[in-house]
Write a structure and sequence with these properties.
There is one protein chain. This protein has 301 residues and is of the alpha/beta class. The chain is 45% helix and 22% strand. A seven-stranded mixed beta sheet has the order 3-11-10-4-7-5-6. A two-stranded antiparallel ribbon has the order 1-2. A two-stranded antiparallel ribbon has the order 8-9. Helix 1 (16-30) packs antiparallel against helix 2 (32-49), helix 2 (32-49) packs across helix 4 (69-94) and helix 8 (224-231) packs across helix 9. 36% of the residues are buried.
């Protein structure tokens, strides 16, 4: 869960070492079902004791989704529970318990052909659904997955996941301060024909952004991921892993057509437009799986 100052994401996620450690040990000792039961009580704690996140979800429900007060209260619970379930499921899958889950692959032929090729691919996702639960399955294409994260976002859970060997499925490329080293790591990974995964829906306080209409209101989207993707001159795929039933996920792929645009600046803007449209369609279908817990929209407009 993202920490925030209401108007911008700090880059640090809530939960951290102790929260992840509890669920890692619980899943390993007693299984996923017991973890789900504990989660149902943990969610009740989060609603009053995570006021900033609660306030942002409440606004999302009331203003963006147009729900009433009673329906918004239940949406709060469902949203926080959905986030906790996503954490439990990604830990379980990375512990090797993927045979306990069902996964549906929605792969158009052009995407399937691309992912089976030797071409490096940029994959753009969102803090929506459970993209991490799909990371181990990209190995079926014989490629390595590289996930780009801000250092603050990753450092809180690094020790737990490494201790419990939950990182075998992907490599993490961290963004640290003003260093541009991550750009060269992305370039090298793509040159090796690997995947590089970026998130396109969350800006830090100092990051360049662009305003787009999303779910009926003006919202800020980061330019960085789309600039990187357009300048690397490789195919771009939008990827989401949506929870669609008990221990069941759908892996949803959409191939971008940004390469049909000539100029770089137009290409990055085209990518943003494509991404916002695709993401909006998914969020409308599964709003409880939206995990940006800060004031994402400019509610005054």
């Amino acid at each position: 869960m993202a920490q925030n100052d209401d108007k911008g994401w700090s880059g640090k996620s809530r939960g951290g070492f102790l929260g992840y450690l509890i669920f890692v040990k619980l899943i390993r000792s007693f299984g996923v079902r017991v973890a789900y039961v504990l989660l149902s009580f943990v969610v009740v704690y989060f609603i009053p004791f995570a006021p900033s996140a609660t306030r942002s979800v409440w606004k999302f429900s009331r203003i963006i989704l147009g729900k009433g007060r009673c329906a918004s209260f239940f949406f709060l619970y469902r949203n926080f529970y959905s986030l906790g379930r996503a954490i439990i499921d990604k830990i379980a899958v990375n512990q090797g318990k993927y045979n306990q889950y069902n996964f549906d692959f929605s792969e158009p032929e052009d995407v399937k052909k691309l992912l089976n090729s030797r071409q490096g691919v940029v994959i753009i996702g969102a803090h929506f659904g459970n993209w991490e639960v799909g990371a181990p399955f990209f190995g079926k294409y014989g490629k390595k997955m590289n996930v780009v994260m801000m250092n603050l976002e990753f450092e809180g859970i690094r020790r737990v996941l490494e201790l419990n060997k939950c990182l075998d499925a992907f490599n993490v490329i961290t963004i640290e301060g003003d260093s541009l080293e991550y750009i060269f790591k992305i370039r090298d990974a793509l040159a090796r024909g690997e995947y590089v995964s970026l998130q396109g829906d969350r800006i830090s306080r100092s990051e360049k952004h662009i305003q787009k209409t999303f779910m009926g209101k003006s919202a800020s989207f980061p330019l960085g991921p789309f600039v990187i993707a357009s300048r690397m001159n490789v195919p771009v795929v939008f990827f989401f892993a949506e929870h669609v039933g008990f221990k069941r996920y759908k892996f949803d792929f959409v191939l971008s057509s940004y390469n049909d645009v000539n100029q770089d600046k137009q290409r990055e803007k085209f990518l943003v437009e494509e991404y916002v449209k695709v993401l909006e369609d998914r969020v409308k279908r599964y709003p409880e799986q939206w995990y940006n817990f800060y004031d994402f929209w400019d509610y005054e407009r």
